[in-house]
Model the fold of this input.
Amino acid sequence: MSTPLLEVNNLRVSFKMHAGEVQAVRGVSFKLDKGEVLAIVGESGSGKSVTAQTLMRLTPTPPSYIKEGSILYEGNKDITKLSESQMRKVRGAEMGMIFQDPMTSLNPTMTVGMQIAEGIRKHEKLSKSAALARAVELLKLVGMSNPEGRIHQYPHELSGGMRQRVMIAIALACHPKLLIADEPTTALDVTIQAQIMDVMRDVQEKTGTSIILITHDLGVVAELAQRVIVMYAGQVAEQGSLHDIFYNPRHPYTWGLLKSVPRLDTDKKSELSSIPGTPPDLYAPPKGCAFAARCPYAMKVCMENDPPQFEIDGPAHTAKCWLNHPDAPKVDRPIETGGAAHV
Amino acid sequence: MSNAPILELTDLRKHFNLSGGRVLKAVDGLNFNVKRGETFGLVGESGCGKSTAGRTIMQLYEPTSGSIKFDGRDVSKLTKSERMKFTKEMQMVFQDPYASLNPRMTVGKIIGEGLEIHGLASGRKRAERVAELLDAVGLNEEHANRFPHEFSGGQRQRIGIARALAIEPKFIVADEPISALDVSVQAQVVNLFKKLQRERDLTYLFIAHDLAMVKHISDRIGVMYLGKLVEVAESDELNANPLHPYTQSLLSAIPLPDPEQQKSRERIILKGEIPSPLNPPSGCPFRTRCPHAMDICAKTMPEFKEVKPDHFVACHLY
Done:
């Protein structure tokens, strides 16, 4: 197998605050292959955004700092060791990022074309007109109508969906090998969300770029991802292929997440299942499993010992839960996996 | 329990006058009833007028024309004392659990304020009532002395619900009450809404953009587009037989949390964007994005009519 594009090993990121140290990311490891679409799912405070921002070293230091771990890019470059000026060469050229809020992430005083061209000219020696011509091509790629006219418009003249297309065009401007999309469709209406997901799939197929998709929406994951990481309290709770996570989940938190979304076939009269309680305080994470306090299957061992990642049929699918220990009691998974498609 | 609807809207309009003589027709002719004890879901995308409709029903905005009848009485013709009674019977839960609670008031004060205004309870009795309400929404008595910033989003939304329930309303307008919450917490709050409805005979107008969740909680659903209702039907019927092309595309645009279902189903992806409500298309407002648009759609607004029992749609296809 070829070297993965990205290899994250035991990454720990903390924020030094007045009240103490917030351990936002607590030992995250994963690999991303070339051309792969990886989704990182989790709820607010799970550390998914901090993980993604750290890959591009975008979290402000101080208060944040990388406590431990490495991020190997193309097998040899450790992102955690690069200086700010070296990082500047990586951002944009090697990795592009799309943010949740397309209004506040675009410069309101610059035309769309100039914003796209600015990124290109930062990394490549190109004339302004050549860069603008590339901008038109990029806007075509993201499905913008009338791209020749659009490059002269300002962000406020565009709708939310069009702004997000511009963001994607900017992120793709220098043909990055990795695109990090942090909740790219959360702020959009559902019909526009469908359009943007289409654009992302299309762009991925045409350019072959790897994508890390940060989201809380399991529907978006099902639509776009090939592999999935489920994060909880700064750690990887479970990771596996799209099929593993949706049809053979092995962590009670994944079960809870899957159960709490209404499905087309859920009985309307039945209660939605919810996960009781709230995530732990990351100023002082619990000694045992971070999910134990909310877990209906918690055992004594869960309170005392933090579970390791257990391999489920090989290293591609792992779950950080004692239930997967060979001596653990067998529990029935509370969800019908496979959904209506298998019935 | 009588069968008469608790809320009747007849040709309700709310237009805003903007600078330069422009008129924003946020709500443009709504007709629907809400039956006693049911949950009516109002869905649509940003700018469709669903929140304006909710606020106009709450009398936070004065309607431009049309009538709102609550419990058989026209709410625009209420006297001052009748209005006081009306506000006691209809309460609202807001979207943003951060902005809708006064940060300088304790939770006990926030929940008890309505009791004070309506002279329903004071002193120890009020404290008891607050404790009871906190318990009903799944919080503790001790929380009464704390301030909103000490709570998570889901807990704050519970406080907002307790506040709405304090004066024992019959009707609650919930404007996107779960949109700002995490998925697992959304489920908690939706379950709470359902439990309270069973226990207290409440009627809900549930406003949201998330059709999947609305479908789960509602008995009937109304779909809005650019200030107009395009379809109203029972929740299961709307899900199984959506008639309006907009409803069809909304349903098909929801990404399903099931990869195989998601890959196998046919999806309708709408072209283009929602037109500006300042300059809506002639005729049917949806025609610019509609895959079935015909000549007539640009000329006349289709009538909102009952094409099947209890299934209303405004579309020239029917």
